[in-house]
Automatic annotation (TrEMBL):
Its cofactor is [4Fe-4S] cluster. This is Quinolinate synthase. It is an enzyme of class 2 (transferase). The lineage of its organism: Bacteria, Pseudomonadati, Bacteroidota, Flavobacteriia, Flavobacteriales. It comes from Flavobacterium taihuense. Catalyzes the condensation of iminoaspartate with dihydroxyacetone phosphate to form quinolinate. It is found in: Cytoplasm. Pathway: Cofactor biosynthesis; NAD(+) biosynthesis; quinolinate from iminoaspartate: step 1/1. GO terms for molecular function: transferase activity. Iminosuccinate binds at H22, S39, Y110, V111, N112, S127, H196, P197, E198, T213.
């Protein structure tokens, strides 16, 4: 009998579909994907897709972004409930009030937000281009940055710009334990600490390198060190192990008592290989974005892609 992976690969061909997956997806899903990447890479890839169907193995805002960028394709997501604490922290009606209270501000939003919030935005950013894009804004222009206050603080520190921050955060990156991290580092003083900028300032202060998931993978490949403590969602370790099989990769410890003693995103992990198969077979759940929202949300995403 054929394995689930084999059946997915067959179905993908039969349906003329591609699978785009984020690095936080479970290993089996990454293995059947046509492209695995960070939020920026996935957006760039989604735009180029020529197939009929994009199965987005990631979370809801990522699938929505793919639909905004490539609206004639059918975009499907294995589990509709695969959300994101950052996107949920920023409901569009409240964000609209916030922007209207500061009409002189440029509105910059992290891609981890809904299409409705993107439609209220001047420029979208991802973790790999946020610093560069904020640096490109004229110094006399005040900036609203939403929804991630931790990424926002990091960008402020890197650029020397003051920004008005929305009070959102990533539940996964906020769960890293500084005490446990310091204890782990004491046992591994030869390790480099690498962290995602959604982490809190006290974690970022310990890091030798801070960057997007793609940036972190590139760092372990190019840095001569043999050992890394990795402060981001544990799904990234699958690709890292493939890229640097002889290096030691240690997940940064989380405060949460979970099975892997590391940080896992419950939203990302809602997608399973079985759900990927069912989703491809039934071509549902489908992601659609109303035309008026899509047209408005496309503008700040395209600005980001131009500036990246
Ligand atoms: P990147 O992969 O773009 O660094 O984003 C991380 C993340 O948390 C996605 O939800
Ligand atoms: Fe959202 Fe954090 Fe999960 Fe990424 S890791 S999808 S930012 S909750």
């Amino acid at each position: 009998m054929k394995s689930l992976k084999e059946r997915i690969l067959e179905l993908k061909k039969e349906k003329n579909a591609v699978i785009l997956a984020h690095y936080y997806q479970e290993s089996d899903i990454q293995d059947v994907a046509d492209y695995v990447g960070d939020s920026l890479g996935l957006s760039q890839e989604a735009m180029k897709v020529d197939a009929d169907i994009i199965l987005f193995a990631g979370v809801h805002f990522m699938a929505e972004t793919a639909k905004i960028l490539n609206p004639t394709k059918k975009v499907i997501l294995p589990d509709l409930k695969a959300g994101c604490s950052l996107a949920e922290s920023c409901p569009a009606p409240l964000f609209k009030e916030f922007t209207e209270a500061h009409p002189d501000h440029i509105v910059i939003t992290y891609v981890n937000c809904s299409a409705e919030v993107k439609a209220l935005t001047d420029i979208v950013v991802t973790s790999s281009n946020a610093v560069k894009i904020v640096q490109s804004i004229p110094k006399d222009k005040p900036i609203i940055f939403a929804p991630d206050k931790n990424l926002g603080k990091y960008v402020m520190e890197q650029t020397g710009r003051d920004m008005l921050l929305w009070d959102g955060s990533c539940v996964v990156h906020e769960a890293f334990s500084l005490d446990k991290l310091v204890a782990l580092y004491k046992q591994n003083p030869d390790a480099q600490i690498i962290a995602h900028p959604e982490s809190e300032t006290h974690i970022l202060k310990t890091a030798n390198y801070i960057g997007s998931t793609a940036g972190m993978i590139n760092y372990v490949k190019t840095n001569p060190s043999n050992k890394f403590i990795v402060a981001t969602e544990a799904g990234i370790l699958h690709k890292m192990k493939q890229e640097v099989p002889n290096k030691i990769l240690i997940p940064a410890p989380s405060n949460e008592d979970n099975t892997c003693a590391c940080s896992e995103c419950g939203y990302m992990k809602m997608n399973t290989l079985q759900k990927v198969y069912d989703c491809l077979l039934n071509e549902t759940p489908e992601i659609n974005v109303p035309d008026d929202i899509r047209e408005k949300a496309l503008i700040p995403i395209e600005r980001m892609l131009e500036l990246s």
